Amino acid sequence: MTGAGPSTDDDRVFKALADPTRRYLLDTLFARDGRRLSELESQLEMSRFGVMKHLRLLEEVGLVLSRRSGRKELHFLKPVPIRLIRDRWIDKYTEVLVAALSDLEHRLETHMEKVYEIYIRATPEQLWEAITDPEIRSKYNFGARVDSEWKVGSRLEMRAPKAGQLLGEGEVLEVDPPLRLVHTMVALWSDEVRKEGPSRVTWQIEPVSDSCRLLLTHDQLQGANEEVFGGWPMIISGLKTWLETGELLTTPGSLMYR
Do the beta carbons of residue 136 and residue 129 sit within 8 Å? Predict the structure, then answer.
């Protein structure tokens, strides 16, 4: 009696993982997600075309996801196929109980992402200053200032004079003034939001004639607590109002710490 043959999907993933260059690319994305092709290419003694070929193969088997952010294409790790192989070929021999694969995939792939887009009549430099200057930030950020050196690896803290506690903290991941800023964020203003853990915020600025397109992406969200991400529409609307008119925009959030 002949047994069933090996899974075609497993074969493709195993073949992709057999190449040391592709394993290196996956390890690099595991260390930090959202890298550009030029960054990945700079760490390999290989042509740009060669790196692109390896990334395309990893995308085809579902190990890498590419997403355009403004004018740049960013690459992200998708660990689900590797985890499924581990569960199928390793865990069933070492564990008495194996978690259901559907539940596993759900937990690994349900990190939320929120994207907000707005056009503001300002220069990239003016918009960058409004995002990174703590005094200006407090004018549209519900009265809370965000302090940081704005260098890769530096800490950031969010405080409001009447809050009585630290409202948030994070670490700066990327700085490319005046076009791109990426940092983590941990909300601290209540026990409920603190449970959500760290997430990531990306500010992408694109000049458009005498204005700018601001694309704000809040991703790697662990849960669905709207307090963590629900204030962004009010914040970026306040940012636009202040830059274009010099006036403060009254919103439910802006009344919290006045």
Answer: yes
DSSP state of 160: -
Q: CA 91, 97, 102 angle in degrees (round to 5)?
A: 75
Q: How far apart are CA 173 and CA 150, in angstroms?
A: 9
How remote is the C-alpha of 241 from its chain's centroid?
26
User: 167 pLDDT exceeds 90?
Assistant: yes
| CA–CA gap between residue 208 and residue 161 (Å, rounded) | 36
Helical H segments across the chain, by residue range: 8-17, 20-31, 37-42, 48-60, 80-86, 92-94, 101-109, 124-132, 134-140, 191-194, 226-229, 232-245
pTM above 0.85, yes or no: no
Task: With CA atoms as reference, report the closest residue to 34 among 65, 1, 2.
Answer: 65
In sequence order, the 6+-apart residues with CB closer than 8 A to the CB of 258 are 143, 162
pLDDT of residue 37: 84
pLDDT tens digits for 126-135? 999 999 999 9
Cα separation, 112 vs 78, whole angstroms: 14
Q: What is the pLDDT of residues 77-103, one digit of tens each?
A: 776 676 676 666 665 555 544 454 455
Domains identified in the chain and CATH numbers: 8-78 (1.10.10.10), 112-255 (3.30.530.20)
Residue type, 125: E
DSSP character string of 188-247: -SSHHHHTT--EEEEEEEEEETTEEEEEEEEEEE-S--HHHHTTHHHHHHHHHHHHHHSP
